[in-house]
Task: structure prediction
Amino acid sequence: MIKSALQQARSKYSPKLPKALEGGVKTVFGAATQSVSDQEAIAKLFPNTYGLPKLTFEASSEATSGTPINGGVILSGGQAPGGHNVIAGLFDGLKKIHPDSRLYGFLMGPDGLVQHNYIELTADIIDEYRNTGGFDIIGSGRTKLEETAQFDKGLEILKKLDIRALVIIGGDDSNTNAAVLAEYYKSIGAPVQVIGCPKTIDGDLKNEQIETSFGFDTATKVYAEVIGNIQRDCNSARKYWHFIKLMGRSASHIALECALQVQPNVAIISEEVEAKNLTLDDVVTYIAEVVAARAAKGENFGTVLIPEGLIEFIPAFKALIAELNDYLAHHEAEFRAVPADEQRAYVAEHLSAANSALYASLPATVARQLTLDRDPHGNVQVSLIETEKLLAEMVATKLAAWKEEGRFTGKFSPLTHFFGYEGRCAMPSNFDADYCYALGRTAACLIASGVTGYMSSVQNLTAPATEWIAGGIPTTMMMNMERRHGEMKPVIQKALVDLQGKPFAYFVANRAEWAKDTCFIYPGPIQFYGEPELCDQPSRTLSLEQAK
Ligand code: FBP
Result:
């Protein structure tokens, strides 16, 4: 395979490792833990894996060695830069325990375990993928691993391959399912440990124990580079307003991080919209006011960042989407049989009055997007809804009305963009390359410790990588009970943007100036080589969160 000069250089990069993992490693067991809330209910659901101690790995003068261990690995859900390094770290960690250890990769996500599709990951394969983006080494998938029948089917192949430990690399839902799987195997006496690893570009798998999910750093740096380029173009031509939607599902961490990196004129944070109970018209008016104020200074250009989950946080939309989800769940076939040009009227007729009025007021494209196929959980796929176009159109309409009233005298030419897939498989930044490799090595240490129901954890992430602290967090410790599809379920709490947190506070303190003046930052591409302040910087979010 032909490789670029950078690809060749990156394949030789040695991720920096926490000092504690370099030589012999000893396991330090902490105090017993509790779940973040609903302790009684969670303890009851996880009798074998609840209350376990936190673990920390420390350097030891005794060499780490043991008997050969066969491990299995699954990549679950959306791609995130660095996944290949988790697998490389796991592979190297298992080989460090014993050179005859083996690693099997289940293909295309959790489905590979259930369907018994796998490959053995040999040194040649692993070397080909070190420090690369993507999940293509074994592929990923969104099959949910939650039924006992799937667990039993998986156990057949785990036993056949003599796999003693399964590492599931995924987001909050996949790690929740990993905890359920760990509990189940323990309860039936199956000799398989289950270990999770925190993945997702969305940045919403984080808490007191997990400082960040991997992939967030690289993806946001890629988006910030491109937004910066757009801002420079926009500041040069001075004639367009760019409406940029950013991936991230419900949480606005990606939009906030990009705003901190590029200082756009406007960034909408869904969590704030919800907290202030803003309507769509409030959001549109806010953007139009910024456009009008800049136009009054002769600046008919700017940038607006929009988180992909925004409309789900606007109460009226939330109600409309909930009713649509419910309606389509029960009348899918009937609805799909209606001719395309009659579907809009058909839907409007079947909704309650308030939702019907909102639905009828939407541009045709957005109305259609709201009725597209649901995801495997029956929810609308927010990444398919063109919120950026919706907002650009509505701002244009408002400004046209203000023009008539003499309130707006400028020009408004919007362009729209959506950045998401561009960043999910990017070559991992040094931060993600190092963090992921350390997560994989830590997972191998957890396997060697014989524990199950843990998530691999690497902390102290704003310090140099050599000072990072590796350990394991009992997954039940991060759980609470939430209503999902009408039933109370134990789940890992999803982290939305903390409106009391330092990253949001910094944004709030500066946004009025960024709106009025042109304070754009042009971050440029990810740097892999050079001074640590150039190439090893963690995200702004993490830096602000950990600032003393
Ligand atoms: P995960 O939550 O599985 O990490 O996926 C994140 C994400 O990239 C979201 O930001 C986005 O909404 C979604 O995946 C898109 O899903 P798909 O890859 O199925 O189009």
About this structure: The domain at 217-307+384-422+499-544 is CATH 3.40.50.460 (Rossmann fold). The chain has two domains: 34-213+427-483, 217-307+384-422+499-544. Residues 77-78, 80, 171, 200-202, 247-249, 308, 383, 424 surround 1,6-di-O-phosphono-beta-D-fructofuranose (CB under 6 Å). The chain has a mean pLDDT of 94.
